[in-house]
């Protein structure tokens, strides 16, 4: 029996998302529950993969498309390609995962020079028929034949200007007929073939174009950014056309069951009277708010509100719906789970539990951990915003605050961002081609488009601040400027956007950190109920530590002592210590550093109270602390009574060919044990002082970096214990402490059972472990990793998300061997992998005790750890 490549909407359901794509599965489900859906059929994702392999539609596929078109003709009571009663269809892509604006829609397919006459006769509206035809030629030319749409727009603008019209609806039938002929000339000139008149040929070409678009560059970028596999393909939905542009009792719209920016429970969306679907999303006309539909078509509004509620209850989630009204009759074109900001995701999740729609477990599982990043970013300082000069106001399309320099193209925005600038991308309207520039920008400003335009949807998904539909902004891309009234803002000028109010300000505005409470706090409490793995933070200062505790950190997993050495008041002592000629001289300068290091640790212990703190001994190569500027070298030479030449020679002598694998980590403690002695003393004295002064229990965790051999571990552990016991005796303290190691050399993970004989805890330093396992330098890998990803050699950046097959196996092996020696061995991970949701899930599965990440990633790790615990049950 031949494979089934095509399904009628009435043959599928919501469970078949992988086969029918998200859109197809939801259309089938809406059909199943009896909603008014224009009928059609879906060509499957499997057909897409087959097409991409074969580079053509197979005879079997074409046969099934034709058979299903005949079935659709019976359902609709119209005939495809018929001159008197033509069936017209839309062709839309629909991948398994929603990819807004990435794949293009074709409306009115089936129109040609003959069927347009039938449509005019059937509807009694010749103007409408030719308007549909000119739209179809433009869409088909753009999407299928890859003709620059600006060529079509130019003809439209030229004729409107000639006739003195300002909007499309003023065009007469005669104007539209002229436009159709001019459009056909463009197609002929560009493709050297007349515009296809055979509706079946149009359909096959459109299906192939959707399949091909799966591999277009912007789709690739979106999938990479959102971790969507490249080999799942897209489905194609062929659906009977319903027309929203048949007069003032018709219209089209997009709506959400809740506000996608805030999560508030009320219908949110927009509609246009006498318009077709893409007009709303494309942002070509600025639409009206959905609540105004009550006044325009009260019966339709009531039916729509009831349908929206039914859909939300059916799917147990906020829905994003597209609808068309044809001569007073409502049709639902699609529904899907709505994209939303992090704030909206959290509010929806918490309120839906209160409403009894979902349970706590679902609420915790539903919020994307990475999305919380959006909630942790600054807003404008209120006083500074009040004083700022308002340039103009648009629609608050994606919340947040952004300040940056203005750029007018995606390429320029990306280049400026790569150079370290904060960028605001200003466009007439954005399109999927702008995706990389949007991703690189702090904020996006568009002159056209509504709350559901491309710019708004994509910005909300990325958590980027966006103000859309700024009618007073006149963009002049050619001269790299925009005008608001008589004010001109040029490329490179600063502006500020408030994506929560829609206000646009001249100049830069001071920002402030967000406050986290309410729904966010509730969701985090629920996450902590399910989570079994602890979350710590990487912090080197009391300020970082306090911020992390505010975000829910349960300790410090990595406190890097070297960052404290770079302070202005101590770098001279550090340099003198490094360049000392004898142990005695070195000890003298270490003596100067001791009270400074101790005060650092006192600050951190006070901030963390009784929470655990893991302090890593000095790790980087010593030459990193030495001066490179001639005046600094001269000043240090004078200070140490040396000649400049001698000083330069000493500095040169400390430089290394490959510092990452050089004289660093525990190797420093082996060659200069006095450094480890000073640091251990500072840690222990600080801990004892704070414990005694505050009446609390502190258990210092001292971590030896870069251990690869048991001998290194034994030697440095001996120095630490001898010094710690000495300090305890001097202070009359019975404080307990732990000595552990950073597992970052592949060899260490393979002999972890031996190292665990001396170590009381392991902390996997996955940044260095990744470097050494791959043989990649983290600082240089950026030059080739993007190519590796593009060519399918690497699935992702192993420094961003842990390589589970290689590096991950070393972590797993290290934990397993270590716990063979010590069953209760505490094993954690530090490094940015500790805040990456995919990596956190992996670490949970291999049994780590905790992850540690930067303060702003702590809530992300908490939620990811909870989701991992829920999934593994």
UniProtKB/TrEMBL annotation:
<dbReference type="InterPro" id="IPR015813">
    <property type="entry name" value="Pyrv/PenolPyrv_kinase-like_dom"/>
</dbReference>
<dbReference type="GO" id="GO:0016301">
    <property type="term" value="F:kinase activity"/>
</dbReference>
<keyword id="KW-0670">Pyruvate</keyword>
<keyword id="KW-0460">Magnesium</keyword>
<dbReference type="GO" id="GO:0046872">
    <property type="term" value="F:metal ion binding"/>
</dbReference>
<feature type="binding site">
    <location>
        <position position="560"/>
    </location>
    <ligand>
        <name>substrate</name>
    </ligand>
</feature>
<feature type="binding site">
    <location>
        <position position="616"/>
    </location>
    <ligand>
        <name>substrate</name>
    </ligand>
</feature>
<keyword id="KW-0547">Nucleotide-binding</keyword>
<dbReference type="InterPro" id="IPR008279">
    <property type="entry name" value="PEP-util_enz_mobile_dom"/>
</dbReference>
<dbReference type="GO" id="GO:0050242">
    <property type="term" value="F:pyruvate, phosphate dikinase activity"/>
</dbReference>
<feature type="domain" description="PEP-utilising enzyme mobile">
    <location>
        <begin position="421"/>
        <end position="502"/>
    </location>
</feature>
<keyword id="KW-0067">ATP-binding</keyword>
<dbReference type="Pfam" id="PF00391">
    <property type="entry name" value="PEP-utilizers"/>
</dbReference>
<feature type="binding site">
    <location>
        <position position="767"/>
    </location>
    <ligand>
        <name>substrate</name>
    </ligand>
</feature>
<feature type="domain" description="Pyruvate phosphate dikinase AMP/ATP-binding">
    <location>
        <begin position="61"/>
        <end position="290"/>
    </location>
</feature>
<feature type="binding site">
    <location>
        <position position="744"/>
    </location>
    <ligand>
        <name>substrate</name>
    </ligand>
</feature>
<feature type="active site" description="Tele-phosphohistidine intermediate">
    <location>
        <position position="454"/>
    </location>
</feature>
<dbReference type="Pfam" id="PF02896">
    <property type="entry name" value="PEP-utilizers_C"/>
</dbReference>
<dbReference type="Pfam" id="PF01326">
    <property type="entry name" value="PPDK_N"/>
</dbReference>
<feature type="domain" description="Pyruvate phosphate dikinase AMP/ATP-binding">
    <location>
        <begin position="303"/>
        <end position="353"/>
    </location>
</feature>
<dbReference type="InterPro" id="IPR000121">
    <property type="entry name" value="PEP_util_C"/>
</dbReference>
<keyword id="KW-0808">Transferase</keyword>
<keyword id="KW-0479">Metal-binding</keyword>
<dbReference type="InterPro" id="IPR036637">
    <property type="entry name" value="Phosphohistidine_dom_sf"/>
</dbReference>
<feature type="binding site">
    <location>
        <position position="744"/>
    </location>
    <ligand>
        <name>Mg(2+)</name>
    </ligand>
</feature>
<feature type="domain" description="PEP-utilising enzyme C-terminal">
    <location>
        <begin position="517"/>
        <end position="868"/>
    </location>
</feature>
<dbReference type="InterPro" id="IPR010121">
    <property type="entry name" value="Pyruvate_phosphate_dikinase"/>
</dbReference>
<feature type="binding site">
    <location>
        <position position="768"/>
    </location>
    <ligand>
        <name>substrate</name>
    </ligand>
</feature>
<dbReference type="InterPro" id="IPR002192">
    <property type="entry name" value="PPDK_AMP/ATP-bd"/>
</dbReference>
<feature type="binding site">
    <location>
        <position position="768"/>
    </location>
    <ligand>
        <name>Mg(2+)</name>
    </ligand>
</feature>
<keyword id="KW-0418">Kinase</keyword>
<feature type="binding site">
    <location>
        <position position="766"/>
    </location>
    <ligand>
        <name>substrate</name>
    </ligand>
</feature>
<feature type="active site" description="Proton donor">
    <location>
        <position position="830"/>
    </location>
</feature>
<dbReference type="InterPro" id="IPR013815">
    <property type="entry name" value="ATP_grasp_subdomain_1"/>
</dbReference>
<comment type="similarity">
    <text>Belongs to the PEP-utilizing enzyme family.</text>
</comment>
<dbReference type="GO" id="GO:0005524">
    <property type="term" value="F:ATP binding"/>
</dbReference>
<dbReference type="InterPro" id="IPR023151">
    <property type="entry name" value="PEP_util_CS"/>
</dbReference>
<feature type="binding site">
    <location>
        <position position="765"/>
    </location>
    <ligand>
        <name>substrate</name>
    </ligand>
</feature>
<dbReference type="InterPro" id="IPR040442">
    <property type="entry name" value="Pyrv_kinase-like_dom_sf"/>
</dbReference>
<dbReference type="InterPro" id="IPR018274">
    <property type="entry name" value="PEP_util_AS"/>
</dbReference>
<protein>
    <recommendedName>
        <fullName>Pyruvate, phosphate dikinase</fullName>
        <ecNumber>2.7.9.1</ecNumber>
    </recommendedName>
</protein>
């Amino acid at each position: 029996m031949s494979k089934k490549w095509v399904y009628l909407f009435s043959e599928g359901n919501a469970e078949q998302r992988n086969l029918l794509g998200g859109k197809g599965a939801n259309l089938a489900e809406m059909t199943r529950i009896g909603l008014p859906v224009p009928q059609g059929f879906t060509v499957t994702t499997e057909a897409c993969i087959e097409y991409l392999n074969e580079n053509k539609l197979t005879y079997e596929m074409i046969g099934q498309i034709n058979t299903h078109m005949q079935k659709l003709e019976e359902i609709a009571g119209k005939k495809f390609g018929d001159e008197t009663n033509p069936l017209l269809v839309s062709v839309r892509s629909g991948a398994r995962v929603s990819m807004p604006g990435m794949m293009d829609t074709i409306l009115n397919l089936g129109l040609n020079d003959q069927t347009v006459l039938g449509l005019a006769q059937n509807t009694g509206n010749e103007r409408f028929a030719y308007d549909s035809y000119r739209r179809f030629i433009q869409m088909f030319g753009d999407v299928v034949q890859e003709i620059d749409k600006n060529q079509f727009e130019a003809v439209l603008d030229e004729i409107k200007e000639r006739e003195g019209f300002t909007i499309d609806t003023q065009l007469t039938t005669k104007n539209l007929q002229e436009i159709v002929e001019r459009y056909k000339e463009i197609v002929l000139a560009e493709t050297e073939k007349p515009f296809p008149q055979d509706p079946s040929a149009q359909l096959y070409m459109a299906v192939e174009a959707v399949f091909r678009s799966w591999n277009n560059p912007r789709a690739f970028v979106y999938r990479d950014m959102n971790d969507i596999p490249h080999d799942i393909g897209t489905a194609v939905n062929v659906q009977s056309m319903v027309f929203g542009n048949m007069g003032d009792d018709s219209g089209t719209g997009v709506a959400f069951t809740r506000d996608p920016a805030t999560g508030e429970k009320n219908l949110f969306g927009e509609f246009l009277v006498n318009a077709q679907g893409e007009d709303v999303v494309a942002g070509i006309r600025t639409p009206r708010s959905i609540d105004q539909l009550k006044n325009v078509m009260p019966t339709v509004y009531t039916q729509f509100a009831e349908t929206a509620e039914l859909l939300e209850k059916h799917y147990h989630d906020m829905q994003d719906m597209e609808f068309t009204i044809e001569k007073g009759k409502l049709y639902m074109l699609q529904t899907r789970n709505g994209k939303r900001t992090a704030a909206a995701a959290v509010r929806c999740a918490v309120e839906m539990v209160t409403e009894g729609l979902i349970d706590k477990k679902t609420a915790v599982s539903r919020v994307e951990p990475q999305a919380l990043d959006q909630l942790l970013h600054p807003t404008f300082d209120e006083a500074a915003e009040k004083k700022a000069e308002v340039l103009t106001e648009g629609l608050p399309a994606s919340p947040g605050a952004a300040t940056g320099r203005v750029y007018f193209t995606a390429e320029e925005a990306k280049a400026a961002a790569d150079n370290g600038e904060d960028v605001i991308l200003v466009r007439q309207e954005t399109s999927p081609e702008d995706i990389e520039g949007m991703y690189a920008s702090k904020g996006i400003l568009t002159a056209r488009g509504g709350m559901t335009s491309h710019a708004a949807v994509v910005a909300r998904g990325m958590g980027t601040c966006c103000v859309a539909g700024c009618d007073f902004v006149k963009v002049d891309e050619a001269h790299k400027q925009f005008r608001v009234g008589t004010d001109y803002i040029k490329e490179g000028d600063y502006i500020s956007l408030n994506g929560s109010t829609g206000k646009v300000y001249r100049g830069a505005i001071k920002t402030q950190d967000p406050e986290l409470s309410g729904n966010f706090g509730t969701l985090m409490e629920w996450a902590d109920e399910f989570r079994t793995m602890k979350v710590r933070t990487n912090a080197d200062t009391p300020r970082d530590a306090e911020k992390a505790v505010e975000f829910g950190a349960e300790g410090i997993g990595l406190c890097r002592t070297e960052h404290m050495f770079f302070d202005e008041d101590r770098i001279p002592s550090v340099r003198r210590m490094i360049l000392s000629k004898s142990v005695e001289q070195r000890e003298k300068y270490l003596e100067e550093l001791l009270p400074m290091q101790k005060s650092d640790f006192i600050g951190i212990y006070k901030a963390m109270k009784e929470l655990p703190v893991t302090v890593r001994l000095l790790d980087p190569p010593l030459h990193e602390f030495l001066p490179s500027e001639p005046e600094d070298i001269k000043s240090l030479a004078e200070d140490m009574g040396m000649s400049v030449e001698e000083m330069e020679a000493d500095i040169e002598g400390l430089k290394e060919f490959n510092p990452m694998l050089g004289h660093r980590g525990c190797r420093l403690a082996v060659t200069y044990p006095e450094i480890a002695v000073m640091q251990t003393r500072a840690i222990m004295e600080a801990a004892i002082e704070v414990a005694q002064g505050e009446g609390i229990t502190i258990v210092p965790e001292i971590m030896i970096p870069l251990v690869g051999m048991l001998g290194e571990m034994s030697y440095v552990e001996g120095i630490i214990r001898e010094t710690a016991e000495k300090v305890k005796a001097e202070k009359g303290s019975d404080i307990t402490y732990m000595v552990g190691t950073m597992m970052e050399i592949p060899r260490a993970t393979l002999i972890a059972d031996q190292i665990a004989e001396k170590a009381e805890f392991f902390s996997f330093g996955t940044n260095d472990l990744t470097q050494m396992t791959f043989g990649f330098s983290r600082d240089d890998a950026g030059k080739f990793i993007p190519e590796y990803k593009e060519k399918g050699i690497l699935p992702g950046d192993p420094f961003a998300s842990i390589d589970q097959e290689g590096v991950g196996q070393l972590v797993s092996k290290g934990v397993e061997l270590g716990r063979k020696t010590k069953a209760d061995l505490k094993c954690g991970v530090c490094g940015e992998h500790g805040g990456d949701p995919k990596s956190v899930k992996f670490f949970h599965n291999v049994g780590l005790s905790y992850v540690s990440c930067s303060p702003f990633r702590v809530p992300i790790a908490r939620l990811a750890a909870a989701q991992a615990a829920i999934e593994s049950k």
